[in-house]
Each structure stands twice: as structure tokens, then as C-alpha cells.
Amino acid sequence: MAVGLPMAVVSISKALLLVSALGLVLWPALQGRRDLAAARLRSPPVMLAALAFLALSLLWTTVPSGEALGALGKHAKLLMIPVLVLFLRTRREALVALAWFVGAQVFLLLSSWLLVLGVPVPWATADTATLDHAVFTNYLGQSIMTATLAAISWHLRGYLPRPWMRRAAVAVTALGLASTLLVMPGRTGHLVAIAMISLALLWMLPRRMRFAGLLAPVAVAALLLVVSEPVRYRATLVVDESQAFAERAETRSSSGERLNFWHRSLQAIGERPWTGFGVGSFNQQYRRLDAGRGNPVTFGVRNPHQEFLLWGVEAGVGAMLLLCALLYCLYRDLCLGERPVVRAGASAMAALLISCMFNSILFDAAIGDFFCVTIGLLMALSLRTAPEVVQARDSAA
User: Taking every annotated instance into account, which residue ranges of this chain make up the domain O-antigen ligase-related (predicted)?
Assistant: First the structure.
């Protein structure tokens, strides 16, 4: 439930999760009592290899060890995914955990709508809550989380036992998409929402029309450019800011800053393509390569707002390939179970991939924790509803 709440709550909850995992999950495993179902997952070995590769770069990192270890700790939040899968050992446990998770996200969504309606929300701690209607984080993170919540509510509504609950899930989907597309200005959130709608439309089409469904993102985007002022304004702004960066290296804009981060990241990767500069080194290398030419506001930035480039700067091309392999294995592990879970998991992975293209999502605190918990919960449900696992459980019974 803590995901999406203030960072202090998230940090305490994450610490409790990882500490309790040592006693309730890892200790039985060390004694030889294995979770045979979880042993089928492909992502944990790849995840450990990726984190080990980043940890190895501590040997040559160009920043102080304390700073490097702090950055490695931010990457290590990925471990929440397999820990959650090991905790949730039955279909019922996974569904209960998802229900609490969704309930907390719905509270966040309704709080945001209260802000839109001008109703005082005493628990809203975001600095710009009354301007962009984000409750605890910023509009970028909340818009992505809300769009992802909308997809999960839509695809998993069939697991709800009563008709009114299923109708409520549809209402959550509508409110979530409306909040992302009509209220919040986050451009990445707009892209994620377009992807969520497009995937849902694609899966609703008959199989013989699936190829035509590939045009759904274009059609949805075109419609939103007509009906949504935030989408139209922010899309126009991207074009104008990108042109300004290309013509005169203008970095004092959101798009200009990102393009400058990416440019400096590619320069750094070009200098050390195989080893990188070590975990936690992005800020140092960005300031060195930028040499004060960019926006002074960004001199303290710790990531390039692109997950793949961050891994490349820190540990080279090999780390980028490991990240790609990890995302693929996470997707495959989400495809083990029943169709609604597979579709919810695929939607979450699509949201994560899009977000990683424009932000260092897994490195960032609140939104990174959100995706790790989301994927961990959906993977647990997918694994516990996999046909082979259900058959083995029934045979044992």
C-alpha cells in the first residue's frame, strides 16, 4: 500500500519488506526448502547478474565510494520483485495483495480528483499539488502510475466477485485515463496512457483483425490531439523545444534538458563503451562533458532521464544489454498465468519500457518502487495461476 505515498513511508515499508524477507523467505531457502514454482522464473538469475555487473563497477567508479554505494542501492530496488513473488505463495495471497495495492492507488487517484475539484486535501504533501494535482510525488510519476493503474483495473476486473465491483473497476479505469490525459501535463504519462488504450483495443479485436489493430496507437494519438488540450499543448511544446535544441543548443527547456542529457551520455559511453565510468558516475561525467554550457539548474542531476543510457554511462554497453535481457525475462515471467493476468502484466511492462525511454524510472525513487511492486505482484499472480502450477497443486491435494 505504501507505493505512491510519501517517500518516508515507502522507505520504511521497503526496509521492513527486505528485512523480513531474510527471515521468512531466504532462510528456508538456505535450508533447502525451495519454492519449486518460483524456480521456473527466468528473471531472478538475470537480475542478479545485472546487479552484480553494476556492483563490479565499484572497482573503477570515478566517484567516492559512499556516492557509488548509494546509487547501487537505488538500482537494487529491483530485488523487491522476486522477494514479493516468494512471499505470495498462493493465488489467493497474490489476489489479496493486489487488492490492497490497487486500493491504495485508488485512494491516490481520488485524492487527485479532489484537488482538481478544488476540495482541500490536507494529506497532499507535493509542493505543486494545487497546480498539477499530484498528491505525494510529482505529476510525471503520478500520471504514469495512474495510467498503469487504469490498465490493471481494466484487465483484472473479472477477478472481482460482484458485479458492482467490476463496474467500479471500469470507473477507476475511466477516471485514471481521464486524469492522465485531460488533467495532468506529464508527456510520458500521455504516451503510457495511449499505449494502455491501444493494447486494450488490440486485445478486444478478433484475431483476424489484429493486424489492423496495430494502427490503434496512431488513431488514439490523433483523437487525443483533437480532444485533449494538455496532450496537444505538450506535444507542440516537444516539437518546438526539440527544434530549438537542434538549431541553437537551447537547453533551458524540458525537452532541451533531456536531449542534452542524452547527448552527454552518448559522449560518455563513446569514451568508455565496455566498462563505463562506474556506478553513480553520471552526474560527474555530465558536468565534465557539459562544462557549464547547459542549464545551471540541472548541474545536480543524478541520471540522464533515460534508463538505458544511465546503465551505459555507469557500466558500458554490456550493462545496457543486460538491462534489455532483464526486461525481456520479466515480460516472459509475466506471461505464465491466466490471460487477464498476462494482459495486465504486458501492459505494465509496456508502461515501464516507455517510461524507461524518457526517464530513469527504475533508478528513481517513488516511480521505480511503484513499478517494482507492480511487476512483483503481477508476476506472483501470474506464477500462481500458471497451468503447470495449478495442476501440480491439485495433484498434491
Answer: 181-323
176, 130 in Cβ contact below 8 A? no
Distance set, CA 169 to CA 32, 106, 110 (Å): 41, 10, 13
Report the C-alpha gap between 57 and 69 in whole angstroms.
11
CA distances 91 to 40, 120, 165, 187, Å, are 16, 39, 19, 36
Residue 103 CB neighbours (<10 A): 11
- Cβ proximity of 165 and 394 under 8 Å: no
* CA nearest neighbour of 42 among 332, 373, 268: 332
Contact assessment for residue 360 and residue 366, using Cβ atoms and an 8 Å cutoff: no
Task: Please give the Cα distance from 373 to 14 (Å, whole number).
Answer: 10
Residue keyed to cell 488533467: 183
What stretch of H or E contains 247? helix 229-248
Long-range contacts of 90-94 (CB under 8 A, 24+ apart): 90/384, 91/381, 91/384, 91/385, 93/380, 93/384, 94/377, 94/380, 94/381, 94/384
| Cell reading at 72 | 547501487
Query: Position 7: which residue type?
Result: M
Expressed in angstroms, the distance from the first to the final Cα of the chain is: 32
Least Cα distance to 99 among 163, 343, 180, 107 occurs for 107
Backbone angles phi, psi at 161, to 5 degrees: -75, -25
pLDDT in tens, 226-283: 888 888 888 888 888 889 888 887 888 888 889 999 999 999 999 999 999 999 999 9
pTM of the model as a whole: 0.92
- Concatenating the DSSP letter of every residue in 21-56 gives HIIIIIHHHHTT---TTGGG-SHHHHHHHHHHHHHH
Cell numbers found for residue 130: 494545487
CA distance 143 to 145: 6
Q: Which SS3 state, helix, strand or coil, does residue 221 take?
A: helix
Structure confidence by residue, pLDDT tens digits, 46-100: 999 999 999 999 999 999 999 999 999 999 999 999 999 988 989 999 999 999 9
